[in-house]
Amino acid sequence: MVARPEGSVELLLQLTKADMAGVDRFITARMESSAPTIPALADHLISAGGKRLRPLIAIAAARMCGGTGDACLKLATAVEFIHTATLLHDDVVDGSKLRRGKVAAHLIWGGATSVLVGDFLFARAFELMVETGSLRVLDILSKASSVIAEGEVLQLTRAHDLNLDQETYLEIIGAKTAELFAAAAEAGAVSAGEPHERAAALRDYGLNLGLAFQLTDDVLDYGGAAETLGKNAGDDFREGKATLPLLIAIARSGPRETAFWERSVGRMEQTEADFRRARELVVGTGALDAALDCATGYAEAAKAALAPFAKDAWREALESLADFAVSRPA
Fold first, then answer.
1. Closest to 183 in 3D by CA, of 216, 207, 158
2. Is the pTM of this model over 0.85?
3. What is the distance between the alpha carbons of residues 327 and 321, in angstroms, rounded to a whole number?
4. Helix (H, G, I), strand (E, B), or coil: what is residue 98?
5. How far apart are CA 314 and CA 11, in angstroms?
């Protein structure tokens, strides 16, 4: 495995502690509903914790740019609601069994209820965007929501596709995952009154960070533990997702393994032993190293995007977060 930079979220967590407490209060208040299933189901997922990276990024971007007041807290809450809504929808589409280490909500309340609660959270997110008083923030996050949906549909249409090229895969995760990182960072800067150029730099930071983070998740699916992932290792393979490590392994494993890949991923005719075999091939071909090299390149690009900003604790925290994205434990 390639050497990975040391990274941590500790500084970012310290700097945003008071602000994130405010975000938690907004989350609790805005999940309230006369339909008791809505707060119960939403809380099931949100209270599981997760990394909360997207709202952290929105707050850090705003504060680094000199933003004051609670506009960025409403923005961060909106970002978390958008993210949570997409997770609820994703788990129904993918049939996932675990999310953030808990039983997936659709297995408890049903798929229809999960989708509708996701819709409720989207609506709450848009209310919060309006309350920030910034049309630019509303524009950024509404466009991001559209791009995320397009990424989901593109991924669905290319499921089990052994001929998926790496460029298209990066396009999918750029839309499905990295877009919300980018929007959170850009909107945070906009909420602080930053001009276009500096807001665009933070968008670049978020986009590259999101790509690094997703690619590392792809690697961990073949080499990580459920405690790290918040889901079962091997879930991507079992769902037939052609992630970057898998695509590289297929390209490198040669014609002798073609039948295995076509059966287990292309036709989804899997046995209990197939994930172990797939992991052996992914590791043996060096696909994990190659995918992590790619992730590290995006993490370095994220840090480079912060060059226009003064070297202070906020910039240091965001740089450290980029390192953390590719140095999470397996």
1. 207
2. yes
3. 10
4. strand
5. 9
Provide, rounded to the nearest whole percent, the portion of the chain with pLDDT above 90.
75
* Topology of the domain covering 10-323: Farnesyl Diphosphate Synthase (1.10.600)
Q: Which sequence spans correspond to the domains of the chain?
A: 10-323
Residue type, 255: P
Contact 170, 211 (CB under 8 A): yes
Q: What is the pLDDT of residue 254?
A: 84
**What is the SS3 assignment for 28?**
helix
> What are 103-111's contacts with CB under 8 Å, separation 24+?
105/41, 105/44, 105/45, 108/41, 108/44, 109/37, 109/41
Say whether pLDDT at 143 is over 60: yes
* CB environment 115-152: b (16+ within 10 A), e (fewer): bbbbebbbebbbebbebbebeebbebbeebbebbeebb
Q: Please give the structure tokens belonging to residue 272.
A: 């209990």
